[in-house]
Amino acid sequence: MKAAYLYHSGFAIFGESANLLIDYFAHRDCPKLPEELFSKKPLYVLSSHGHHDHFSKEILDFPKKYGAKLILARHSAEAAGKTDAPFTVLDKGGRFDDDVLRVEAYGSTDEGISFYIELDGKRIFHAGDLNNWHWQEESTQEEIDEAAEWFHKELAVLAKAHPELDAVFFPVDPRMKTDIGRGAKEFLDAIRCHVFIPMHFWGDFASANAFEKEAAARGARFIPLHHPGETFEL
Fold first, then answer.
1. Inter-residue contact 133 to 145 (CB < 8 Å)
2. For residues 208 and 101, what is the distance between their CA atoms, to the nearest angstrom?
3. 94 in helix, strand or coil?
4. Parallel, antiparallel, or unpaired for β 231-233 and 2-7?
5. What is the pLDDT of residue 223?
6. Could you read off the pLDDT of 116-141 as tens digits, one per residue?
7. pLDDT of residue 143
8. Residue 111, Cβ neighbours under 10 Å: how many?
9. Could you write out the DSSP letters of every residue in 156-189?
10. What is Dmax (Cα atoms) for the chain?
11. How many Å apart are CA 195 and CA 175, to the nearest integer?
12. Are 41 and 17 contacting, i.e. CB atoms less than 8 angstroms apart?
């Protein structure tokens, strides 16, 4: 199985039985979607929430153009507005399951949900905006404590259900300055992850890739990213 980094938190995953497109964001730096995504294999398009950096209305055309199945957080469905596009809506605790793909919706510490995915025997987690959104230099202690408590609560639910993952896509956001890797470290301390892929770093590859040592220290193979459109093995 391989994947392609598109931009920010957007990824394509190419499986043996299906392809996935997750949190596609049609930013100016995002490359044209790979042709391989629209092969004869089923295509599933997931959106964790409707913020502009995780959702593009372009995907609403994909069921008609490519026969894609849309799996949207309720927040994404609301952002879609009035549309004839068919889609499945997931709330936290919801599940999509067919003979190809399984998706479970977990919580977020912002809008929407995060995704646990099973495809071709791989256990994959895409965090959406789930993170310990922690600004030590800017937030009050009360805000810091509330953010940490919320994240730890959501993380505990996931860790209990899925204590081991084959691959995790997780925010490493440079805007958090000295706390850039706090949530990611806590995630890897709570759940055994074989592969870690950084995301939500707004094109700041150097800052995202600096997390490699922390991931390796926690037993995860880190995937360094260098440019939009880059492919890698999961």
1. no
2. 29
3. coil
4. antiparallel
5. 98
6. 999 999 999 999 999 999 777 777 88
7. 84
8. 18
9. HHHHHH-SEEEEEEEE--GGGGGGTTHHHHHHHH
10. 52
11. 24
12. yes
Reading the block at residue 32, the tokens are 């044209």
- In order of 59, 70, 71, the CA distances from 63 in angstroms are 8, 7, 11
So what's the pLDDT on residue 136?
A: 72
Supply the pLDDT for residue 135: 73
Please, how many CA atoms are within 13 Å of residue 201, restricted to the half-sphere of its CB?
28
Q: Cβ contacts of residue 17 below 8 Å, gap of 6+?
A: 41, 42, 100, 119, 120
Supply the DSSP symbol for 32.
P
Residue found under tokens 């995301």: 199
Helix (H) or strand (E) holding 73: strand 69-73
**Residue 35 CB partners (closer than 8 Å, separation 6+):** none
Residue 62, number of CB atoms within 10 A of its CB: 22
Residue 211 tokens read as 């997390």
How far apart are alpha carbons 21 and 32 in whole angstroms?
13
pTM value > 0.70: yes
Write out the two tokens for 90. Answer: 């997931």
Pick the closest to residue 52 from 74, 36, 18, 75 (CA basis): 75
The per-residue pLDDT for 159 is 98
CA distances from 89 to 4, 19, 55, 94, 101 (A): 25, 19, 14, 9, 15
pLDDT < 50 regions, the chain: none
Would residue 137 be called left, alpha or beta, if left means φ above 0 and alpha means ψ between -120 and 50 degrees? alpha
Residues in the chain: 234
CA distances, 45 to each of 50, 103, 173 (Å): 13, 11, 24
